[in-house]
Amino acid sequence: MKRSLILLNNLNKIVWSRIVRSTSVGIESLCVFRMITGFFLLTIYSPTFGWIGRAPKAFFDPPVLSLASFVGDFPGTAFFVSIDLALLGCILCIILGIKARLATLVYVVLSFVALNFQYSFGKIDHTILLYLLLICMSFSGWGTSLSLVPDRNDRYINPGKSLSLLTVLLCFSFFSAGFDKALHWINFDFNKAGSASWFYPGFYTLDRVHLLAPFARDLPFSAFKLMDYAAVLFELSPLVCALISRKAWRLWLLIACFFHTANLLILNIPFIINSIIYLAFIDYSSLYAKLRRYLKHTPFVYSAIGITGLIVIIRIYNIATYKVSSILFIPEHNIKGIAYFSLCYWTIVAIIFIINLFKRTSPLVPEKR
Amino acid sequence: MYSLRFSILLLLILIIPFLLRKRAMELYPAVLMPDGATTLIQADGRVKVEYKTVSGRDASGKWTNIDPVRFLYPIPVQYLPAILSRDLGATFDSSKVMTKKFKLLERMHLAWKPVITDEELRERNRWLKMKLAEQGIQASQIKITSYEENISSTDGKILSKKEKNEKIIDLTK
């Protein structure tokens, strides 16, 4: 028994240390990433929830054992508009570095509450990775620099641990998607395809008819079977790549960009939210010194404040008029616009990862705490 | 580095919601991505696809197809199938409440059979009429039609289309 425990302990140490070696970046990089995340939340993924308060009660069908199921109805618009404004405030605090850890955690809690009600129409969306990123990053030290009111450099801060935990959560979430697919999709019956069960209903019911979707309808059925194999291999491989090496992990992240781009082109499912999780693993430390210099440059600061202020005004207008526009200037009902924007966006992200793959970096030695 | 105890605790936190989802009980929040592991079968070079459409009937009696994306906007379009499966909120999924686990949760006061009142249905009708008016459709009735299409798996041509079911909702009540 004692021997087994020692073995398990050693295995645990090896696994975590390998993951840290594959994924670690410096605290300076994470401070830059904090600002990138803030702008992502402000411009690309900025859900609002005021519209939920105006939905008819007849549509209320909450998930079992959820907060919403205990409340019993959609709360009023005032509740959701307050949350929307508070979330906007949290985003500004994240960008500016005003008690970033607290702002991040408040953002997550408020989002979970609001999303619980949003998922009370009978379907749960799977945006959890963004919030896991934020929780992990709040303990990474990303608010200790490039900040107006920096977080204290206390014992809870550990970039290596934060990113390694995020990696494990990311790997498990893909495992949860790939496991059942592996059971039902991996066979040699080319008359059965899982990707087809995603494609056809979306094409006919959800207006997913853009980009390459009309051409995908003309594909031979066996093409969908090949997509099944590729999807399962991709979804079950991240932990293996994280354990192999840093290069393997970065390669998996690049493949993830291609996977989401392919999903977008054929299934018109953008999953744009996943990109910010992948971008956490890029080393931005070369930008840190440049950014520090620019932030001392008054015209740059005023321009940045001006642009941010303008975006905030647009967001407040959307909140006040119950317009839903996660991506700035593109309303949620503009499926075509979202598809084309997402294509450009994923292309840029993929280019960043291609450059990153060939960049020489060495794993950082994790800090001993 | 994380201790063995932490790793075991983490594993439990991750595994339990994953296993509950396999029992058709998805918790939120939980570290889960969409599984969607159903398959479509091809037989004799054709694929059978089932879907629903929504149309509105105006005062002249004409049925007009409703844009599914704008229909319930700002409720996201991916929620439409779930809402349509409950006849736009008029019914609840009775198969859900007949299960042993639902009855157990009900006894523990952790789940309730939803009760849809006439006032809620009237509120829903007013809301739907407003939504349709935004699309320029002055509808007095909505029809939810289930179709079954056979599509050629070689060139995507629609080989046959059959109306399986139709449900009309009167918005004037």
Structure summary:
The complex is a heterodimer of chains A (about 375) and B (about 170). With about 375 residues, chain A is mainly α. Chain A has helices at about 1-25, 25-45, 65-70, 75-95, 100-120, 130-135, 160-185, 195-205, 215, 220-235, 240-245, 245-265, 275-280, 285-295, 300-320, 335-360; one strand spanning about 190-195.
Structure notes:
The complex is a heterodimer of chains A (369) and B (173). Chain A is mainly α and 369 residues long. Chain A has helices spanning 2-23, 27-43, 67-71, 77-96, 100-118, 128-137, 159-185, 194-205, 213-216, 221-236, 238-244, 246-267, 274-279, 285-294, 298-320, 335-358, and one strand spanning 192-193. In chain A, helix 2 (27-43) crosses helix 14, helix 4 packs antiparallel against helix 5 and helix 6 packs antiparallel against helix 7 (159-185). Chain B has 6 helices and 5 strands. Chain B has helices at residues 4-22, 68-71, 80-85, 94-97, 100-107, 118-134, and strands spanning 40-43, 46-57, 63-65, 141-152, 158-170. The longest helix of chain B has 19 residues, at 4-22. Chain B is extended and about 70 Å long. Classes of the chains: A mainly alpha (369), B alpha+beta (173). At the A-B interface, helix 1, helix 5, helix 6, helix 7 and strand 1 of A face helix 1, strand 1, strand 2, helix 2 and helix 3 of B.
